[in-house]
Design goal:
Elements lengths: L14 H10 L10 H10 L11 H8 L3 H13 L5 E4 L5 E4 L3 H26 L1 H18 L1
Antiparallel strand pairs: 1-2
Length: 146
């Protein structure tokens, strides 16, 4: 039984339950999935957990989408539709449905590191005061969209 991973956008649904809800709900979800979102999600649904990812290249081959399109569709599935899709980098890289707290950690860690690195770069470019102001704006935007 997969962990009921607490994710801000999906309450207590597992990533697999959310994906299947989007794919098979009647009436269709609002906003509805695009054809490309449906095709990519159908394939990622077969890859549950970080130990069995599907590569971006395999998604490109299966859907006929270009690299940028696949990345954009995955991003939209996560941000606009609330599907917990993780990605691994390195040797066994690819996309997967988050199925446990460990999957969430593996998927989130590189994003957090990337945010830290971007913050360091912004501090050099804008200075610490402007970065603190930007942080406050981002926090307000997140609170409004919650």
């Amino acid at each position: 039984m997969p962990d009921q991973v607490q994710l801000g956008f999906t309450a207590l649904l597992t990533a697999e339950q959310r994906a299947r809800q989007l794919l098979y709900a009647q009436p269709p979800p609002v906003p509805p999935l695009t054809r490309n979102e449906r095709e990519v999600l159908r394939r990622i649904c077969l890859h549950i957990g970080r130990k069995q990812p599907i590569t971006r290249q395999r998604l490109e081959e299966a859907t006929g989408l270009a690299e940028r399109e696949v990345k954009s569709v995955v991003r939209d599935l996560i941000v606009n539709h609330g599907v917990a899709i993780g990605a691994t980098r390195g040797k066994d890289h690819g996309y997967f449905l988050v199925d446990s707290a460990e999957d969430l950690e593996v998927a989130g860690r590189p994003l957090i590191n990337e945010m830290r690195e971007l913050a360091r770069r912004l501090r050099v470019l804008y200075g610490p005061e402007r970065v603190a102001e930007l942080h406050g704006q981002l926090t307000l935007e997140e609170e409004r969209s919650a």
